Amino acid sequence: MNAQVPTYNLSIYVANRPGALARIAQTFSRRGFNIESLVVSPGATGDFSRMTITAKGDKAGLEQIIMQCSKLVDVLACREHTDEEVVARELALVKVAVDAAQRGEVLQIADHFRAKTVDLAEHSIVLEATGSSEKLDAMVDLLRKFKIIELVRTGKVIMARGERET
Amino acid sequence: MSENQMNGAEALIQSLEKVGIEIGFGIPGGSAIPIYDALYKVRRKMKFVLVRHEQNAAHEADGYARATGKPAAVLVTSGPGATNTVTGIMTAYMDSIPMIVVTGQSVRGMLGKDAFQEADVFNLTMPIVKHSYLLKNANEIPRVVKEAYHIATTGRPGPVLIDVPKDVGTEPCTVGLEAEISLPGYKPEPKGYGPETIQQIADALAQSKRPVIIAGHGAVLARAEKELRQLAETLQAPVTTTLLGKGVFPDSHKLSLHGLGMHGTAYANRAIVECDLMLSVGARLDDRILGIPSEFCKHATKIHVDVDAAEFGKLVMPDIRCRGDAKAVLQDLLPLVKRADTDDWLKQIEGFKKKWPMGYAKKGGLHPPQVVDALNKLTGGKAIMTTDVGQHQMWAWQFYHCEKPWQFISSGGAGTMGFGLPAAIGAQFGRPGETVIAIVGDGGFQMTMSELATAAIHKLPVKIILMNNHYLGMVRQWQDMFYDERYSGVDLEGNPDFVELAKAYGILGLNLKRAADIPKVLKKALDHPGPALVNVEVVHHEEVYPMVPPGKTLAETVLCHPRRKPGRPAGRKNAPAKPGAKKA
């Protein structure tokens, strides 16, 4: 995907029924939208799920996707949110190969990004960081100086600020 | 038997009857035996029709719905039984036809284990259904059937599939048939608009000097024909109908422009080019009517009325969008509408009609439009017409004149060849006293002709008018016009003797080979009390015109073959004749 293609935040509130995720995923794939991240979690009540999708594509295509998703029988709401309208968070776990000599610098980076050490072994360290996706990108970039053994990110979750509905 | 003792399959059949399903089409198989056993044991009112291929079951349910407005059930088995329905489901989905498709499935414990005749039908059909269910237990059945019917028939209608594992059909259903539906996300919204939108439309109409109304299938499905006519007459605005909108505005009305688009009339297309306002009522503005989407009504105010919000801006960005049922919208709009100042416009349109009238060749063999025209006269425009897909479909659309909706039944969005005969059978079951005519081509007919058996067994008086040009004619037309006559894969050599074929099923078969015999042979078929097939040996080479060539605008509608036009310089291939420029 071209770096110029904009990224959108979508929040979908959906009845917790079999096939709901597949239907939504199909709606994106059929229109050539690339899903960057997808988080599915239980809603405030058990019968509903919240999906947060970060996707790339053109604006006209996005409008179609929002309408097509809204039309799905299981979908209660499908909304796009700009970065300014929402609180956005993501969590990352990064396993870095370090020996005793390098550990200090890694911990310094972790400290700067308020990451926690959640596992420490002789030749590796696992950091847990939370924050905006951009902050996590920055931390991971700095850690690339060392050998990153594994990287797991949850994908972005968002919530609308103030009284607005997500 | 009390309700508490029924099994899942019995609950299914009883629930289908309870929601109002009057007829089912299908073929049983291993996984569907419990369902068929229930049909045998507990069916009371619902009629059942055994077909010869599952695709036809779906088309018959489709034809039934298009003739009556009521959904029918399709009852098939797992695996190939279910996958055979896919073309039929897609045909219904593309044209917004309500339908309940019940597929048998392997027992729950075998799902995903490649069991005999197991296919993941729930996922296979996901993009071509309005909604679907894979049943987990028998107690869900009464609720699921009620929801399926509700979803299929409300808002923008469509097919709903219920996949029934065999052991869900055999386990007890203990909840009774009363069920509450639970669809928190479903919002059909027949009135998804406010009074300000209606006022906006009324204001735009009042200012327009050259309005055109496009009426589509949504106007048919909403039963808005009366309101539409009232709107057109009050405004004094011309109306063009899409393929699926045919009949929702009378073809004989002086404000009718007939069809538009790729094979629409030149005067309808010209009116679209010249209009200053386009009001679409229940048409989805698809690629077959637009020419080049970005050029469509480029300088006109575009108003789009549709019950499905996802249609807005798909290909044409409307200036005013109004989400709602066509009837509800027009009812709210009518009190605000006054006669518009369209006298000059209507005169101009009369000029278009005189300049570019619809016509067809009458000499040098038998021409399909002649046959359609004769059918029109013999039936007084009152028959229910079904078609396959291709040249004959376009000729039927152009030359059969309908005064009412629910009368012209054709696969529009999907363009499914083979649709005509099974759709006619479904329509005839739905409207038993009426004349049902399937106009088919020799290509499409051979895809579903096994349904001759169904017509024969049920003594359905459907009339099959087979336009036999021994070609896949529409593809040949494109190869002729745009591929330098490289006829690839279109010669249907080896066609059977269709008259003998009909006779083999006990169906009246007639040949029609000379133009002079048209009334006599057609009348004989129409007067015959049972099914009849007329093999019409039409000229082998004939093209459908007018035509908007692919990649051209409606302003570039072609009226005749660019290379065969008498008096045209040779070698001017594909030169589009612009209406407005000198015409044939």
Task: Summarize the helices and strands and which ones pair or pack.
The complex is a heterodimer of chains A (166) and B (584).
Chain A: E1 7-15, H1 20-30, E2 34-42, E3 48-56, H2 59-71, E4 75-81, E5 86-97, H3 100-112, E6 116-120, E7 124-131, H4 133-143, E8 147-153, E9 157-160
Antiparallel strand pairs in A: 1-3, 1-4, 2-3, 5-7, 5-8, 5-9, 6-7
Chain B: H1 8-19, E1 23-27, H2 33-42, E2 47-50, H3 54-68, E3 73-76, H4 80-83, H5 86-94, E4 99-105, H6 121-124, E5 131-134, H7 141-153, E6 159-165, H8 166-170, E7 191-192, H9 195-207, E8 211-215, H10 217-221, H11 225-235, E9 239-241, E10 256-259, H12 266-274, E11 277-281, H13 287-290, E12 301-306, E13 320-324, H14 326-333, H15 343-355, H16 368-379, E14 384-387, H17 391-399, E15 408-409, H18 420-430, E16 436-441, H19 442-448, H20 452-457, E17 463-468, H21 473-482, H22 498-504, E18 508-512, H23 518-527, E19 532-537
Parallel strand pairs in B: 1-2, 1-3, 3-4, 4-6, 5-6, 8-9, 8-11, 9-10, 11-12, 12-13, 14-15, 14-16, 16-17, 17-19, 18-19
Antiparallel strand pairs in B: 7-13
Helix pairs in contact in B: 1-2, 1-7, 3-5, 3-18, 12-15, 16-17, 16-23
